[in-house]
Write a structure and sequence with these properties.
Elements: E1 2-6, H1 11-14, H2 19-26, E2 27-28, E3 37-42, E4 48-52, E5 58-61, E6 76-82, E7 87-91, E8 94-98, E9 103-106, E10 113-117, E11 126-132, E12 140-142, E13 148-152, E14 161-167, E15 178-184, E16 190-191, E17 196-197, E18 201-208, E19 216-222, E20 225-231, E21 236-239, E22 244-249, E23 254-261, E24 270-271
Parallel strand pairs: 1-3
Antiparallel strand pairs: 2-21, 3-4, 4-11, 5-10, 6-9, 6-11, 7-8, 7-10, 9-12, 13-14, 14-15, 15-23, 16-22, 17-24, 18-21, 18-23, 19-20, 19-22
Bound molecules: ligand LADIRMRS and zinc ion.
Length: 278
Amino acid sequence: MTMKVLYGANPDDIKAFDTQRLRREFLVSNLFMPDAVSFTYTHVDRLILGGAMPMTGSVSFGSGADIGTPFLLSAREMGIANLGGTGTATVDGKSFVLENRDVLYVGRGAQEVVVASHAADKPARFYMNSVPAGADLPHRLVKKAEAKAIELGDAKRSNRRRLAMYIHPEVMPSCLLLMGITDLAEGSAWNTMPPHVHERRMEAYCYFDMAPEDRIVHLMGQPEETRHLIVADGDAVLSPAWSIHMGAGTGPYAFVWGMTGENQEYNDVTPVALAELK
Ligand SMILES: O=C(O)C(=O)C[C@H](O)C(=O)CO
Ligand SMILES: [Zn+2]
């Protein structure tokens, strides 16, 4: 298990960032390495994001040595989304089978998580978001069919998409984590249109189901001072509260979004008119 640390940046800093620096602070790559678990501790609302791609055996995590608590989840909750083939996640001896696009909520206090794929030629890709939690809630699997889905956008504007809420007060109540998956409709390219910011929550995206040669042009920054990141399959991007988050892909894609902060009000956002973007 590896734990990288990102300290985050403020909006004035990024005005002077070159491409390399911007990528270092806001882009997390190599999340899904064979038979490894990699975490990144961000100081953006203390969200930890991680990935694991077990192939033939199982891989486990749970130690809190990197973060100063007995266990990684001694004071945290976690969402685990399976972006690949079917796999199993076993939390302190209790096993949950995650098919593609199922999400497991792991409550505060879990000590050991063991993940495995059912078939090495179609490995599971477990993507994790973890945030500080104030209560112990039971672990629960949220199947794809149980998520609350919303159809958004318009094919004529190339932004039709289906947004599915998994860890959300109406589906799987948590302490402060929100997590869901957005799938772009065939032929649509743009996500999160029109864009928005949410002062009371940060957000992280993990783009997946992309062909290796495709890329997302992800836009970030304050509306009047945007920057872009070129993002590949399996990469995650951090979006602090002050940043827009939107993107367009050169081919089909989906993404997991995770949020935490002051509240869990999905609609507590400030829309940004496209004419405001610079
Ligand atoms: O395509 C979308 O729109 C989204 O998926 C939006 C994200 O869920 C989001 O930004 C939530 O604040
Ligand atoms: Zn958002």
